[in-house]
Amino acid sequence: xxxxxxxLAFAGLLSCxxxxxxxxxxxxxxxxxxxxxxxxxxxxxxGKYLEQPREILFYEPGITVESLEMIETVAAPNGxxxxxxxxxxxxxxxxxxxxxxxxxHGLRLRTSNGLTEYHRFFVGPFPTVEENEITNKAxxxxxxxxxxxxxxxxxxxxLNDATDVDVYRVEVKRGQRVSAEIEAARLGVDRGIPDLxxxxxxxxxxxxxxxxxxxxxVQDPVLSILADRDGAYFVxxxxxxxxxxxxxxxxxxxxxxxxxxxxxxxxxxxxxxxVRIIGDPKGSWDATVTLxxxxxxxxxxxxxxxxSAPSPNRLRVSPFPNVLEAEPNDSPDxxxxxxxxxxxxxxxxxxxxxxxxxxxxxxxKKGEQFxxxxxxxxxxxxxxxxxxxxxxxxxxxxxxxxxxxxxxNQLGFAPAGGLTRxxxxxxxxxxxxxxxxxxxxxEDERGDGGNDYVYRIEVRSEENxxxxxxxxxxxxxxxxxxxxxxTVPAGNRTTFQVAVxxxxxxxxxxxxxxxxxxxxxxxxxxxxxxxxxxxxxxVVEAEAGVAxxxxxxxxxxxxxxxxxxxxxxxxxxxxMNAYGNNDYYLHAPIDKLALAVIExxxxxxxxxxxxxxxxxxxxxxxxxxxxxxxxxxxxxxVQMEWKPTGISTTTPVTVPAGETEGTYxxxxxxxxxxxxxNVTLTxxxxxxxxxxxxxxxxxxxxxxPFKLTIAEPHVEARIPRTSIERGKTTTLVCKxxxxxxxxxxxxxxxxxxxxxxxxxxxxxxxxxxxxxVTFTLRATGDALVGNYQGIVLDLTVTDKGQSVRQLSGNGVxxxxxxxxxTPKK
Amino acid sequence: MRTSRxxxxxxxxxxxxxxxxxxxxTLKVFPSSVELRGQDAKQALxxxxxxDQGITRDVTATxxxxxxxxxxxxxxxxxxxPKKDGSTKIVIELGKLSLEVPVVVKDAAKDRAVSFxxxxxxxxxxxxxxxxxxxxxxxxxxxxxxxxxxxxxxxDYFRLTRAIVGRRVDIAAPEKSxxxxxxxxxxxxxxxxxxxxxxxxxxxxxxxxxxxxxxDGDNTPEPTGVELLPRKVVFAGKDQLQKTVVVANYSDxxxxxxxxLALYMSNNEAIAAINKDGVVKAGGRGGAFVFARFGKYTVxxxxxxxxxxxxxxxxKAPEHNYIDGLVFDKLKKLHLAPSELATxxxxxxxxxLDLIGLPPTRxxxxxxxxxxxxxxxxxxxxxxxxxxxxxxxxxMKWGELLRIRAANNQPQYGRDAKAMFSYxxxxxxxxxxxxxxxxFAAELLVGTGSNFRSPPSNLYTASERLTPEKTAEDIAQVxxxxxxxxxxxxxxxxxxxxxDDYYGFAAFFAxxxxxxxxxxxxxxxxxxxxxxxxxxxxxxxxxxxxxxGGAIPEVDGQDPRxxxxxxxxxxxxxxFSQTMANIIxxxxxxxGIVEPVDDVRISNPPSNKELLEELGKKLAGYGxxxxxxxxxxxxxxxxxxxxxxxxxxxxxEAYFSHSYVRRLRAEVLLDTITRVTGTEDRFNLSPAGTRxxxxxxxxxxxxxxxxxxxxxxxxxxxCEVNREANLSQALHLVNGDTITQKIAQSKLISGLLxxxxxxxxxxxxxxxRTLSRKPTADELKRLADIVRRETTEPQRLRELVTILLKPDxxxxxxxxxxxxxxxxxxxxxxxxxEAISVGKQLETLEQQQIAARKRYESTAVASVxxxxxxxxxxxxxxxxxx
Lengths: 825, 882
Known about the structure:
The complex is a heterodimer of chains A (825) and B (882). Chain A has 825 residues and is an all-beta fold.
């Protein structure tokens, strides 16, 4: 007992030390995870290293912060206040505007030390009520003990244990809807899926409807039924498999209309779009939506009888007009050519019964290229679409171009672990083989169908977009969001790896990387992207004196010197709900990179730019210096995170506490391309990482970018096969082929000699004119008889005042036993 | 009383039913007609005498055989050989009995060239050269690579003649061929000497070698069927012999005596042994099968051995329905008398445990025993079949067969807990609706779509990886009761399945593929209708879907599983209906008519073929309504027989002459203990109040269930449910915490004591609740005596209380305090203020201690009854159904 207390005390001490070492704030959760628009919500942020909260950075408009403070003490059950662990809790008052869009609002908390992970706050239309379940005392597990909630409210609830069941009672009138929607899996957790199940019972306990999942929100179910009499109805929430514990949910319950589909699922920019709202138990109803003037996604929350749906459906806004399906269109022949469309357009329809096939005709000219993107899963529709295109005038049996899925990059999604449902929506890249009419067909891959099986096929000319994202580091395996924002101390630098992906074909020309919306005093240095190079180190520098602040910036690429611009931007996939082995079940794409300038870091690292080149098959030692602020004595670990192809490095080098200098060894392989690279070293506070799962907290800075030249070796050596007898000497003559001149004399020796073989003269001097160099070898009694390979010439030349080491040649040495001696058995 | 009167009645029936003897013996000859084709043809004849009791005798040696026209053929011993083309007869005489066999001779002048497939390959089989322990394997073994049981004759020919030229086969000096020198032991051979140079098989090999070891032409006939004769042998007494003859039919219409080339086996050597030459020898009493294997065919004959001086009298048990008729027919043949009818109490317990997996409650027990309706058993069966627990039992059975078990570590195979949840719920729904089994199976077989939204698709995600072969094996095993696994690499050694059958069946599932759904746990099963073939491993032929033992359907460009589902579940498919019937039957008897239920094969024949066929027909006739067949079975006298055997049937383990004592399966045992003690179990992934039978998935279990052999559902094998009794089970019952904790948590005994029940009443109550019977007078007296001794003798009770008190820290502390206070009091002046205060304290504490002792006394009394309950749980009678 006593011992473990002691250990705990020590552990506490250690974590205190780590916290004092500054570092990145970590946000584990927010509670409550959402609130009503037009109200002020008090939200508690829980995490680590949250000392000195400074601001909340929102990705969408509509929420402002009224107050932000550390929580120092909380009320204990006995009423007294007790202190909380430092840096673990922050309280914020969020003012949600009356016109705030419904749905998720991405945010990060900024503290004096940087930015937290991305989390989402859910804005709904209804007032929040608490579940009010007290374990062992007031449980709402049965109809008899159900919590009564007013209609059109949002219950903030929690499933206490694996088998907890929460039951709510609502009173409605005959003919009203009883609708319910769960927000749980969507809220996003680090690990696991809060996968809940929803059931509606009548007053007698008869099950009226149940749902485990929904096409709209995957694991989050929705239900809507019509009340057939006045009185109480019961909504039950439980885990779908009686597993998990402590899962938080928001249950929207009331008489609202919960659309499961909207047809058509989009329109042209600025259009007054007439839509049919599908999925209401009272029957479909019509509405007119004013679409915004910018293309893209438009969250639309349907309102009927003055009550809004709890969360929006996703509509698409396109720069081209709609074409609606006209049944019969089940086969190419049934679609008359009169309705043939000229691209680009968006085709819209519904796979209204199992096995339904919808066809559209369109005209295209030879060589025209179009991209057909069938959207259904992405819009929350149950259709798993397959699309195909056939030429009308072509041979009747000619194979159709048929696609059932898409790749993440085609959708502009950065590579990420796990699966997104959007990739079930196919993208067909089409080039017209001849002038004429074509038929586009769409069907459900599983042969299903129904009245809310809405789809929208957006067709536009082919374009190749290039997007940027922060490439994953090894530590992202366990912390998917680690280092996916930029924190730069004022008067210092930081580096991060930016990768690019294209939506269609690889890029050809030279590209440069540009930061957009950078705060004043912040600059970006990045090497140019050349074909084949998809990842570069980018250095962000903040001038001294830049005030701490945060910004959402963009990172775009554009052709070097060219006038043409290409569609570009930053695209990152936030991963949540980890499940199984490195798989994520919730993906939130974001298109802005969060950047924070923080107070000056306690150290800087400067590297001495190498004057000479690193030669192929050679080595080079980089010297660097840690400049410590007064009072900072901790260790600093340095490594090169981005390396040119063919360059190898040592493991991260740690400069121990109190010391200021270190060397970092670089090696170039034989096939490293001769070129000049702009590189940096990254330094972090603290010692070497214990492993990928090391959650140690660090401050990252970078050295200035410096030039690293990789060149051909100076000399190429040819080492002949030689033999030596034990106890004797022999000479070995290396032939030299000079590739690059060097100044003065170079020192040569033989390396990788076997045991017992010595050089009579340890080194030899050669000049730039020598065609060969001779070594005398001696074999002692220790030498073991046999063949030894891999003997190399180790040459150190002086180049521009720096010594450059290179290895060359590949010799074989045979060691023989003494003549006349019979080998021992 | 009522029961014993019934016994007397039965006894009277037995006494007045004499066994009537019928007329004379008959003579049989095998084969019943002879066709000799070719110069070297010959045919041995077997003569059998069948007496009025059906007992057979091999009279081949004593019978006289005579050729009507000796110019056409010769008769050497009992073997006939050709001379000249034509037809004649052989007359067989034994005493007064006589019989004729027609003989046809064809191509008597033609000399058939020695053939590799027809002559040499059977020698390899006969002498075990190509079996698994010698040179046979899927790829051959031990240097000389032969295909296992000769499934690949072309390959064998190649390896024999081409692999090591001039060694195995030496055309120049045939006698020096390694093939002969090894078999005769002339050179070292791990397999030893198989035969010498005088053996017929030596001559066969030599003549083939002398002929230049030729390969067969394209039109070499293939065997199309084999017969082992006689089909039935009934021995009276031990050590009697019966010769057999094996006749093979060939694709060219010829018939050949292959008795000397066939390989013989028995499924029960102790009852019927068979030697290398096909001579059957009677062993102990009972029934068995002997088999002959030739080519890819295995055929069997039934052998019954009866005692020598059997004074068997059939007791004439009244038949309740067709089941009894068929079971009793078999018992009569085997001279086994069925046991008595089980008592009402025994029947009640058996039926409850079998149908709903729970014991009857006290009220159910009372009302059944008090019922005087003669149809009360049938009524009870009807009631229990409609109980929801009946649905749970069959949901569990199908959960095992369909392997409902999550494997969350690899969601890409579609076996996530969530999918299994919806699968189990679907199966339960089907059972609750009493969905006809053929429709149930058919819907599973065509399972397509999301493993979440379309539960039948989970049939195809049940194995770790979806391969057509594995799927085919599982489906054959579950729905056809057939294990075709062997035929993946070679023709099945003990059954009729060939590689062609196997890969033809696997081709039904070749087009299946799995695609991930909208979230990582979801997997979508769909069929690529253009990819319905698999490659034959021997020659790479593209195998088209072929029903197992059936036709090749026209399924090009379609999902072939639809045709499969129609064929497999049609009422005409006896394999399906009989397998389903057998699974149901085995639930009520602890063994199938074919046992194990998923290992139907020629060499594992049903113990009562007629019964199995009839049950299959009935089930199909009922439109695969499981409940109707269950009702028939439970209403049969066979099911209601007592577990107490009689002198004739005590060794019977296969013919259902009495009720077999079966250990309760793990789930039922735990549920029964839980029900009796009125406690509750909690299982993972299950809501509160879930019984063990209702656990929906294989990976959720607990120590008790695992110890008692709950199926982990990792394979579709019926063997997963372990019903053996072993030491760890006994130890867990005796020492483990399950029973002890449940008794401790139970309010049963305290409730009975609170109701002021007498000792006897409590004991009777415990007996009825656990064993569904009242204690015998002796049991009651002895137990009541123990209870009285323990609870009324103050000394014993004190000891018990002391034991119970020991762990009570508070009691000890108070006791200590009392002693201190007493010591303090002694020091204080009497009557002083302090003394009075201490005195008051002492009084309160002492009263507290008295109350505590009282509490412990009643606990002690309850614990004595708890021990009785513990004893009952530990009794064999409780853990077994009988």
